[in-house]
Amino acid sequence: MTGTPAVIRAGDGPEIAWKNGGGTTREIAVFPPGAAMDDFLWRLSLATIARPGPFSLFPGMRRVLTVIDGVLSLTGPDTRVRLTRTSAPFAFDGAEPIEGVPVGGPALALNAITRRAGCTAHVARLGPGDVSPASGLLLAAEPQRFGPISMARLDCARLERAMPVAGAAVAVSFAAVGP
Questions:
Q1: May I ask which residue range the UniProt record assigns to the signal sequence (predicted)?
Q2: Is 71 in the same domain as 152?
Q3: pLDDT one-digit tens code per residue, 69-79
Q4: Which of 34, 55, 57, 81 is an S-S bond match for 98, by CB 3.0 to 4.6 Å?
């Protein structure tokens, strides 16, 4: 353990267009590394929601959305919520049919998806002076120094120890569940 977080730069991964044409997704990290959509334990990505449309269904999964930019309205059988860049992270069942509607322009959201039977995600907004968790990932919602490194907006650090945060950020940690 070096104590210096490894950084995943915002543009490192490819941006993939959604099948429905309503947005794009850029994968940040997946576990196990290299796992495909049908065999990951957890996945963290950034999604740009450009047009209204249905979210992909992920039966057996739990999703947590955190809006980074814009406003996003979500509706479904058990869901009616309007998310902004200051809203708390919003968790929902990946099997629930959700309609996403960006309000006043595209919305950018951090998306943590976990396999319900094996993992859970804890997602929290942090601000200047807050301390990051000791493990997990930290997305910089604005440029900042994080310990010894400079992070551009939307860069993501792999955490190896708790450290003070210098600006708006979102911390994501994953934990195994079950026997």
A1: none
A2: no
A3: 999 999 999 89
A4: 55
